[in-house]
Specification:
- The protein is α+β, with helices and mostly antiparallel strands.
- It has 13 helices and five strands.
- Strands 1, 2, 3, 4 and 5 form a five-stranded antiparallel sheet that branches.
- Helix 2 runs antiparallel to helix 13 and helix 10 packs antiparallel against helix 12.
- It is flat, with a radius of gyration of 39 Å.
Amino acid sequence: MEPKKTSFTGNDPDSDAYIGLLLYKTGKSVKNFILWIAGIFSSLWKGLLTLVVFLMRNIVWILLGTVIGLGYGAYLVNKQGAKYYSEMIVKTNFNSSRTLYNAVSFLNALINNQKTDELNAIFKLTPEESKQLVNFSVEPVKSELIMSEIYKEQFLQNDRSTKIRQDTFWSRTIKYNAFKDALTPYDFPYHKISAVGTNPFIFGKLQNGIQEYISNNELLKKARNSQATYNEYRGKMIVSAIEKLDDLRQAYNERIQSGQPNASPGNSQINVTQALPEIKAPELALYDEMLTLNDELQRFHKQSSTEANIIEVFYPFNPVGQKISFFRQHMAAYSFYGFCISLFVLLFIALWRALRVAVPEHAVKNNADNTETSII
């Protein structure tokens, strides 16, 4: 009688053979992954060594290109003279940030095209002073505090007109991190304007020109006038509310002193108990409400003072500009340009040589294959 033959299929998960096979495949996968990572690091290391060897072999040409760029930068510095810069911090009201950025681009275009007449009209400069302007730049002033204030004004502002739908509004509020990442330079209220020129004493004349140029926008003028009218009305309303609360407080104090906490229906005096229902100490509620209105009036005056102009200057240009470092002008930039150009040319030459060597070898191999085919 022949012995019964058994075959292993590997389908039984409880068998030792299945577990051993699973461990073997897992170990093989881990080993392949480690070898793949090691191959990547090895390729990177070889590429780095190849680049270092390439740079060392062509160090003379690279240094020559860098020196040429450095020399050209020094030539421009000597030709144009030393440069100076000054900075100004402004607050843009009535959504005028886009107008500010457009104005800076327009001023740079005038400088690049040497439109001295337009620059003279804007800044009240002489033709010689207009030629001494180099460029303007603007960027938002960013900080975590400023971004949190923007988020608060946009979503968390406690407005009396929105108390009824406060819960619905909170449910639709986006997350702070998503809001912060979506901010653009135009959304920030504060911006830093930088001016560069070859005359250190020209910057004191630039502030008024920028303010007047932006303030001449008709749409921004209408927005400012509308806001000024509303601020005047709002200020009167807050003062009136404070005065009425003070009259109510005096009437309540007189009632307490007279020993009549509740007035008869026919009495002409104010019924404080009816005016403030379900309040155990109305005098405390009156004082709290007056303090709240006083704080609101203080915030209103502070806000309205910063909205008097379309562009509010918080930190003006320094009348005497600071000298830009010699290496921060043209020299460092053109030295880098010379280095990059020389490196690009050398890499292009090396690639061209590699292609010229590879193409003939490929052609010779194809000819040999064609010859063998014809012989067969």
